[in-house]
């Protein structure tokens, strides 16, 4: 189903010569419309706020040319949200994740893949607290056992030589 939308989006881009931002916004609306309509019908404002936070400040988020708030409000317009609801989203102050890599280093977290996993774990905790946990509360969980260990790096296989080859 998703491939159909991307194919359709490619056709629209070719026919109408959309900019990359317009194409990305169109794909975003098409891919998220069903969940957005469900969240809107249930009155789930937290789903919308989580969408903004995930796109704007989650660890490893994609850098996009259009702000996440603009994209989410366009999605709200596409799902026929009321103007009051859109204003509520636009006026909501986007929270700032209080943890940075240096904070984790000072808490004893090793840099590299473990730091990324720890940052994601703490971000999820912060999100579950509805953005209420402060830096000290989050750092107290920086060495939790629930944080998975990164997979061990794979060693490159040695290139096999054919048995019949002659070294020259």
TrEMBL record:
Which keywords annotate this record?
A: Magnesium, Metal-binding, Nucleotidyltransferase, Transferase, tRNA processing
Q: SUPFAM superfamilies in the record, alphabetically? A: Poly A polymerase C-terminal region-like
From which organism does this entry originate? Angiostrongylus costaricensis
Q: Which cofactor does it need?
A: Mg(2+)
Q: Which GO terms describe its cellular component?
A: mitochondrion
Offer an example of a GO molecular function term for this protein: tRNA binding
Q: Enumerate the InterPro entries for this protein.
A: Bact_CCA-adding_enz_type3_sf (IPR050264)
- Region Disordered: which residues? 144-168
Q: What is this protein called?
A: Uncharacterized protein
Reading the lineage from the top rank, the first entry is Eukaryota
Q: Which PANTHER family match?
A: CCA TRNA NUCLEOTIDYLTRANSFERASE 1, MITOCHONDRIAL
List, in alphabetical order, the GO biological process terms annotated in this UniProt record: mitochondrial tRNA 3'-end processing; tRNA 3'-terminal CCA addition
- Is Metal-binding one of the keywords? yes
């Amino acid at each position: 189903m998703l491939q159909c939308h991307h194919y359709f989006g490619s056709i629209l881009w070719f026919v109408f010569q959309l900019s990359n931002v317009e194409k990305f916004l169109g794909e975003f609306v098409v891919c998220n419309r069903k969940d957005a309509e469900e969240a809107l019908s249930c009155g789930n404002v937290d789903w919308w706020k989580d969408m903004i936070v995930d796109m704007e400040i989650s660890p490893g988020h994609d850098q996009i040319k259009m702000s996440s708030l603009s994209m989410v409000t366009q999605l709200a317009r596409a799902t026929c949200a009321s103007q009051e609801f859109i204003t509520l989203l636009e006026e909501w102050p986007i929270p700032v994740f209080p943890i940075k890599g240096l904070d984790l280093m000072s808490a004893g977290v090793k840099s590299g893949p473990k730091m990324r996993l720890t940052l994601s774990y703490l971000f999820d905790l912060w999100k579950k607290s509805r953005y209420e946990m402060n830096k000290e509360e989050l750092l107290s969980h920086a060495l939790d056992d629930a944080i998975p260990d990164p997979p061990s790096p794979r060693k490159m296989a040695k290139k096999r030589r054919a048995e019949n080859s002659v070294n020259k």
